[in-house]
Design goal:
110 residues, alpha+beta, 2 helices
Length: 110
């Protein structure tokens, strides 16, 4: 449990896993697999670091409705990162039945 980061008022946190150390590529892959297994729709958003706390993030393409391929989602994250290297990028899993976000987490810190 020592890997959990303590609260620091000068450092902004957000999203589902922001108090944990950055995820490894394998952990990101496993979380995408979880989203797909739940039947949720993955979506990618990005924004400038100074606008991190804004409610408005740019949508990278439309949500990937019915996507089953983890590799395709990872390829889209990589393409978004290449096009916006200084932006924060987050992955969202939209739950069709609850009509809300099932999860959201940062996959790239610009």
């Amino acid at each position: 449990m020592s890997a959990i980061q303590p609260y620091n008022a000068t450092e902004r946190k957000g999203e589902t896993f922001s108090y944990l150390p950055p995820m490894t590529p394998e952990q990101i892959r496993l979380n995408i697999q979880f989203i797909v297994n739940q039947g949720w729709n993955p979506a990618i958003e990005h924004t400038e670091p100074e606008k991190f706390t804004s409610n408005f993030w740019y949508l990278w393409k439309l949500p990937f409705f019915g996507e089953k391929s983890v590799d395709r989602v990872l390829a889209e994250i990589e393409e978004c990162r290449r096009m916006n290297p200084t932006h924060l990028i987050r992955l969202i899993g939209f739950d069709n039945f609850a009509q809300s976000q099932g999860t959201a987490f940062i996959v790239h810190h610009g």
